[in-house]
Structure formats: structure tokens, C-alpha cells
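Tutorial sheet, problem 5. The two components below are modelled jointly, 693 residues in total.
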Amino acid sequence: MRMLDIVTRAGRSLKNAKARTLLTSLAIAVGAFTLTITLAAGNGIREYTDRLIANNFDPAESIVGRDKEVENTGAPDTSPKEYDSSVASVSFGGGGGSVQVKQLTDKDVKELKQLSFVEAVRPNYEIAARYITRPGQKKYTLSLQAYNPGQKPETQAGNVPESDVAAGEVLLPNEYVKLLNFASAKDAVGKIVRITIERPFTEETLREFVAQSLVSPAPTTQPKQETKTINLKVAAVTKKGAAALSASGLPLLLNADDAKSMYDYTTKGTNQYGKYLYASVRIKGGENDATATAAKKKLKKLDYYVMTSQELQQTIGQFVDILQILVGVFGVITVIASVFGIINTMYISVLERTREIGLMKALGMRGRSVAWLFRLEAAWIGMIGGVLGALGAFVLGVSLNPWITKTLSLGKGNDLLIFDLAQIVGLIVILTVVAIVAGWLPARKAAKLDPIEALRTE
Amino acid sequence: MIEIQNITKTYGKKANTFTALDNVSFTVPSGASVAIVGKSGSGKSTLMHIMSGLDKPSSGSIVVDNQDISQLKSKALDRFRAEKIGFIFQAFFVQANETCMQNVSLPLEIARVARGSRKKRIAEALNQVELSEKAATKARNLSGGQKQRLAIARAIVNKPSIIFADEPTGNLDSATGEKVEKLLFEFNKQLGSTLVVVTHDADLAKKCDMQIHIKDGSITRIETAKKIVAKGGAK
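Model answer (C-alpha cells):
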């Protein structure tokens, strides 16, 4: 029998058992639905993270540090390590855990800057600022950071600089516009804000204080806390973009030199002075994976630990992959369950049509053709299920996308579920093949049927 | 011409051996009508299965048109049945869910006849059994006689050289049965295909050119109408 005739006959016999076909298909459809959603969500999340990375990381920039934690993407290593003066304690997680990290020093930064393949070095300044205010207004807390050109925030008013904020200027997050009583974001641009930082107690003042308290139990003079107020001009008002990686609010962004002098002021006399957890190092031509890897090799020779931008992307990508696999497993389990449904249905179909099979074989139909008749029947079931499931997922996904985007505040135009036609077609083809495999044993039974036995009427 | 030479068919092994056919030999001239007559369990159905290539003999040979079909491999045997044999069964075995047209189309599909030429041949076969108006009707909506006529159309559509009819009137009342019989003999004469009828109906058997009586796996008697002897002798 010709394949075309077999396909037609298989389709016809399914049409004659509509309810059974549909119900068996529905089992496959559930699997197809889950898998389509999983694939679509994977696409969406991947696209979203790609945008996140593009907005938050300079692809040519690597993170360089002296501690191997820089390269660690898993849980931090909290085991004791040899002490030297550059070790600092960094807390992580919510459980009050801390890890001892060897820091970069000014000497390291200088060394890095002198390397031929390094374009720029931006140490990570963690500035402990007291408050921000302006004349006649209340004081508010803040967080301060050096401006990173690879991580441009969105602007509400003014201009975000290309390479660095001008000295003495600041990028102000829009939250402060109202707090500091500006009329509008536009109004804030060009105005002055005041930031107060404080110098920690030096060893000397502390010693003095302790000596005094030994003499008189109630010391009259408090140790003096030295503070410094800096006036900064607002260069632009920034707002948090939809693709901002940080979960916390946007920091005030400063010129690199301003940031360094503030960091030095706030750490002077402590063992944090001139030490940094890590530095962002821009590699010449580091957008290229091979160049970045070569640079990493050279840096490792100098005992630095390096995570390139590509590696960071991979780490995030891996996380997405794992998430997708987890959800995908449920889809696959559903498909496996539905395979048994198909096997069962096909066995019933073979039993029901013993006579028909017997007749066809008596009339000279090859066992192979009979087997294909049933395999194709199973294939139809798989295909119908795949199409139904994918279609259902598509309709639901497209209609839910605006709501999901709003609820997860992904930003306008960012869809969580992105359907790819080629993927869906591929999925349907795979499900069809799975159904054919499921129909294999029943089809074999049909092919091996003895026509004389099948046609015996008793 | 069908030549049956020393056919034996046994089932089971050793002590449990059952002999269904015991050294059966006869010859059927081309275009003749033959009745295989016997009670149930006599071996007549087994004989028909072996003659039509559905079953293989334990020993002996069946030569159809100078070809020993007992030596054929399963693929060639399937092809032999698809191209040379038409079957009619007591229980009709028409596909209730399919239309008359689809039912008659089956042997053509199996014999890999091109789609283009099928329609004409199906229409012709349905016309010959007077079911033209029912072409698009599902077989389940036909009466018993119509079903058997549909089965006849299915059997003749591929112009087989031998038609096997296993108790073709067994499930029909005598009036419809007669009509079916008439059709069968008509095609036997018109198309020149050999007709082999398996029956225990003596009246039907008498209408055939040749009657082979079978009992407990052996031929007890072969009756031949005079005309066939003359015809056979002439060949």
C-alpha cells in the first residue's frame, strides 16, 4: 500500500473514533502546553537577562580581585585562611554569615593600570555617607557609588555623561526630587545638594578616649567625630530602568576621583584605607571572548582572580537554563504519562479492528503496511495533541503577557513569554515521533496478526 | 488452472498431531466454478485457505497458473493474493464506518493501483453489483444482501483470476441469497474468473461445474458436470 493511502486510512479511522482520539490527544496536549510555555518562558527570560547584562555590564570589563571568591559563583568559602592585613570581612546572605576576603590594595590598582592590555581600572568604592540634604530641607540617607559608564541609568532630566561624571557633579536618583523639595526633575538639574561624610575614629582619638575614661568615670569630652560636607551640582536626574539589575534603589553616582577622595576620607585610619574588594578592569578589545580569556590568563599569572563579563553572562545563563530544565522536566513527565495513554488507546484500536486487520492482510496487505497504519494513527494523535497544546499555550501566553509584564514590572515592551514558531514546530514534530514510538508495540501486534485467526467467525 | 497435488496439512506435534487435510489432489480448470462441500470440521475451510495462499500446506503443492504458490515467500504470497485472488466471506467483512466507495477501494490500494484509475474501476464494480447509488453511503446503512453485494464488488474490482467465496449465502435469506448466487455465477461466466465456493448448501453446490466432497480431511467424491469435462478436455 502506498504511504499516502496509509496516511488517509489512518486519519479516517481516527475520525471514526473521535472521542477516543481527542481524549488521548488531550493527554499529549497537556505535555505540549507545558513544554511550549517552558520554551517561551526560557526565550523571554533569556532575552530579558541579555538586556539586563547589556544594560548593566560593559562586555569588555572584567572583575578583578585578590581573593578566589571573585571567581566563585556558588556559595562562598567560609573556611579559615591565612591572615594578612588586606583581609576584610564581608557579610553575605540574610543569615548574618560573613566571609573573609583578601582585598585589592592601591599598589595592585597601580599595577593593574600599568598593564599594557588594560584600558581602565575602576576600584569598587564603598562610601559610607551620612546624609544628603540642601538648605532648608530635611536630611535623608543615601548610597554613593562611582559612575560606571557600562551601567548607564535612564535619565529623567539632564544628560547622563558618556565616560564619567564631571568633577563636583552628581547624578541624583529621582526619588530625591520630591524629598529634597525640588519643583521637578528638570528644576533639580544644575542645583546644589549637600552630602555629609564622616571620618571614622582614629586609633589615636580612641586611645585618648580610653585613657580619659580611666581617669574620670564620666568623661566630659566625647571623642570628636570629624565630618565633611561636600557640595555637589546635580548633573542629571536618573530613574531606575526596567532592566536594572540591582534590587535596591539607584545610588547617587559620582565622578571617579571624587569617589576616591570620599572613600579615602571615610576610611582613613582604618584598615580599609586604600583597599578595595574588587576592581572593574576594562580590557582592550575585551568584548572579544578570546582577548578577554587571554587577559585573564595573564592576570592570573600575577595572582589576581578574574571573572570576565562573558563568564558572568554564562553564570546567569546557567541559572536560567537550570530553571528551564526544572519546569521542562514536568512537561516531559506529562508526555511520558501520555505515552502510556497512546499505547493503551492503540492496543484497544488493534483489538477493536481485529477483523479489519485480518481482512486487509487476507487481501494481501503487507504486515509492514498494517504496522504503519497504526503507527500513523498514533502519529496523528501525537500531532493533534501537540498542535492543541501549543495553540492553547500560545493563546494563553499572548493574552497573559501584558498582565505578566505589568505584575513583574518588566518594563514596557518586554514580554516574559516569547513564542518561537520554529521551536513550536520542532516540538510538534518531536511529539509526533514520540507518538509513533508509543504506537510501535500495538502496531507490531497488528502486523503479526494471523488473518485466518482474525477472520474466524464463531 | 489450479492444480492441487498431494496436499497434507497437520496441526500440533507428535502425539497431539491433528491431520486437517490428508493427501488431497485435484485439478480445477480455469474459469470453472467449483464447490467444496463438507460439514463443519471436514477440512473444507483449511483447503480454501491453502488454495488461496492464506495458509501453507505441511506438504504437497498448489500450482496456480503454472506457479507453485506453496514455495512463495510471504511477500510474494501477499502480492499473489492482492493481484489474483478475490475473497467473499459469510460475515461480509465490509467496513461499517467506510462508504461503499472506500470499501471497494481497499484492494486497489493494497495492489498499489494509481489513484487516477481507481475511481473509474470502483464505479464500474459498484455498477456491476447495482450499488451505484449507494457509492457514498456508509456500509453500516446497507442491508445484508447489499453488504454481500458490496463484498462482491470489492472482490471483483481488481479483476482477480480466482474468487473464493466462503459460505457466501450463509447469512442471507433465500431470496437475497439467490440474487447473490446469481451475481457470483454471472461474474464467473462474464469475467472468466474461476469461482471456488465453500458451502454445505447442496443446492448451491449443484449449480457449480464441479463439486468436491470432503470429509475428515479426505476427498470422498468429485462430481463433474458434463459440460466442464468437455470444456476441460478441450483445453
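Marking note: Residues 125-276 of chain A form one domain. Full credit if you identified this.
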